[in-house]
Amino acid sequence: MAPAPFRIALSGKGGTGKTTTAALLIDAFRRMGETPILAVDADPNANLHEALGMEVTESLGSMREEAFTKAIPPGMSRHDYVRLRFRQVLVEGTGVDLIAMGRPEGTGCYCFSNDLLSECLAGLQAEYRFIVIDAEAGMEHIARGTIGVPDLLLIVSDPGARGMRTATRIRDIALSLGLERERMALVVNRVRNGVAEVGGEPVPVIAEVPADPAIEAADLEGRPITGIPADSPARLALSALAEQIRERAAAR
Ligand SMILES: Nc1ncnc2c1ncn2[C@@H]1O[C@H](COP(=O)(O)OP(=O)(O)OP(=O)(O)O)[C@@H](O)[C@H]1O
Ligand SMILES: [Mg+2]
Hints:
There is one protein chain. Helix content is 40%, strand content 17%. The chain is an alpha/beta fold. The chain has a single domain, classed as P-loop containing nucleotide triphosphate hydrolases (Rossmann fold, 3-Layer(aba) Sandwich). Helix 1 packs across helix 9 (233-251) and helix 3 (60-67) packs antiparallel against helix 4. It starts with 5 loop residues before the first strand and ends with a helix. The site of magnesium ion has 5 residues, from helix 1. Adenosine-5'-triphosphate (ATP) binds at residues 12, 14-20, 43, 189-190, 209, 211-212, 215-216, 219, 234.
């Protein structure tokens, strides 16, 4: 039997580089041949696909609304229809598939849909080696249990004192959600001149990612982040992180 997938979630305050880090980490795993990888965009304001250079036409949130209300093709059960539509939301790429969670839309009771969608998601996840989740600071989907418990929570912070304090608050949210401290690590992103001392690290630093002009250039020109040169400093840092994570996954 294939080993269980290793689930990595990225959280952090707005604009710290969660999506960039997620994209480069996914690309590093892909280059290492650690495929297939499932990329989960759990940010309602989805943009991981752009960083990866993939196209998303639909999110799980928008599909759910339709799949549970629309008339279904004759001879098909609602369950089968939802399963079919679920598969259509998944974007398949080379070594990497992507699913965007979108917003939970509409009101009313979604118990049935949530159960069924959770079942679909759980079934899907089993097929992958690594699952990389681009989450927001509040970790909604992790809190609601829709995407499972991460094996590793990467808290992304900028190197400043305020960023590090926010990282501490995010760690506390994660602790309150029942995640173990041993499964959390800090990624300090956009490092130029060292990292602020705020009286102890919120969680151990697993990687320092340099501020990288190639990322800025890609962003300015609207190109996928994964297209930056192989020897660019951020890519090298993320490749080293991917190696570390691979060892962790193997040691489980
Ligand atoms: N190491 C880096 N070097 C240079 N620029 C970077 C680096 N990491 C991220 N950026 C830039 O910082 C900005 C924010 O990055 P990103 O979108 O990845 O953050 P985020 O945490 O996902 O933001 P949000 O909270 O809006 O989802 C982007 O313009 C990105 O290009
Ligand atoms: Mg983002």
